[in-house]
Amino acid sequence: MQKIPGYENTNSEVPDKKYWLYGLMIVFFALAFRLFELGERVLHHDESIHASFTLKLLEHGEYSYDPAYHGPFLFHSTAAVFHFLGITDTTSRLVPVLFGVATILLLFLLKKELGKNGVLWSMFLLAFSPSMVYFSRFFRNDMIIIFCTLAAVTGAFRYLDSIHSLKRYPYLVLAASSLAVAVSSKENAYIILAVFGAYAGLGFLYWICSDWKKENMGLKETLRSKTSALLPYLPEIILSGALSVFIIMFFYSSAFRYDVSLFSIVERAFNHWMEMHSIERIGGPFYYYIPILLRYEIPVVLFGAAGFFYFLFNRVRNKGQNYSFFLFLCYWALTSLLLYSYIQEKVPWLVVHIVLPFGLLAGAFLGEVFSKKNKDGQPKKPDYPGKIRALLTVILVLTLLVFISQCISVNYYRSMEDEELITYTQASPDIRILMEKIEGFNESPDTLRIYVIDQYQLYWPLPWYLRDYERAAYSSKPPSSSKYDAIIVPISCDMYRELSEEEYSSYNFTLRPGRDFTLYYNNKLEQQ
């Protein structure tokens, strides 16, 4: 097996001490941005379902894989957080936060490909990306997938770079275990496996064909030679595959407490999501992600697109300088954009899977353009004339100002505004007021009789916020008994046809955009 050629990057402008200092400062602020007021936003419909499933797993040890709610890793890892740190909105989001920050830390392992400046720029863009920050503060699986995707890429390239050294083993484990955790987290891991697998297959064929022509041997001799070159690495590859299967089965069987098979897991995932794609459950136009990218990720889009063409077609720059890595990065960015645009499950959180490769391209491009020294420390000849560099600088400054302001706005001021393209049926802050009202009743959580009624059973996240109310009940129609203290129904249901206006008061609130409800409660509940 051959070592990938040309692993020296021209960009080594930042001294080691400053490189680590700047990098760790970015990580620190990335963590601070993700933790600040983490529990302030009301849990989204999906977040509340995930949190309730996690609570059920923690308290009763019950788990059953349902592809509609994705894989088990998020539930099991968050159950551990709940056990040690308590059950709150804040703790429910800690796992995505940690994986979002860990993604940025992974970039340190790509210094050889991106260069120091490229690593720092990539870290900066991913650390303050509005969508990356938002969904790192969101109790879903996508930031776990983002980390695992980058970890698999990093592990693979570091493994190939260390192929003749014992240092390669940890990187193989990193790649294998990351892909296993991805499969245990969400079904779009199969898309990632297909994208990466196709590229690996094409690379393998190119490796065989190019050497076949160079060595002027017959096809059988070439295949025999390549097979013999791969044989020494086969045991460790098989073992890493076994490790992946073990991790997947460990989580899907809930620590081997339930009987499941790998085939049934894959079959259920494919059947469910192929059906969702075919019926276009949450469909949208092919360009669905473009407005989101242009609104929130301007520098990633502009400089990522510039990096795509710069690294793909700049032959002088690419000659022997990480071309294999950047060719893969361009392929990854393009296929991610096209595949997620094609799949008829259009939701804002999937945009992070497009932002990741384009963010790396943008960071690498900025690292190249604004580098002043070559790898030997000598002044570097600029890639662009002074006027173009000045124009790029102005564009960079302006887009970064928009970038940071959008990050702050959508995460801390408008995180529950339905006008934001990224929020998507976010639960209303009215729920906080509702809970304050219910908690102010003179009945305790273990005695208050409260019913939540909706014929479509779209009352989430109320079950999460009413989790401590032991006598809370949920139904698609009013209860047969009229013995209740409070009832929550869609605003279109006028309960005063059944309840006395003298005995019951009402409070209207918005659950989420387009879903208005009314709380009817006995006046005695407010008597002191």
Task: Describe this protein's structure.
This protein is mostly helical and 528 residues long. It folds into two domains: 14-411, no CATH class; 427-523, D-Maltodextrin-Binding Protein, domain 2 (3-Layer(aba) Sandwich). Helix content is 59%, strand content 6%. It is globular and about 95 Å long. Strands 2-1-3-5-4 form a five-stranded mixed beta sheet, covered by helices on one side. Strand 4 (504-512) and strand 5 form a beta hairpin. It contains 21 helices and five strands.
Written as H for each helix and E for each strand, in order along the chain, the element string is HHHHHHHHHHHHHHHHHHHHEHEEEE
Helix-and-strand structural type: mainly alpha
User: Could you state the oligomeric state of the chains shown?
Assistant: single chain
Number of strands: 5
Helix share bin: 55-70%
Approximately what portion of the residues adopt beta-strand conformation? Answer: 5-15%
Given the structure, what is the number of helices?
Answer: 21
Sheet bearing the most strands, described? 5 strands, mixed
Shape: globular
Q: Can you list the strand order of the major beta sheet? A: 2-1-3-5-4
Please state the average pLDDT score: 89
Q: Point out poorly predicted stretches.
A: 1-12
- Radius of gyration, whole Å: 27 Å
Cα end-to-end separation: 79 Å
Tally the structural domains. 2
InterPro entries: ArnT-like_N, CHP03663, Manno-Trfase_MA4085_prd
Domain ArnT-like N-terminal: 69-209
GO molecular function, one term: mannosyltransferase activity
Membrane topology: Multi-pass membrane protein
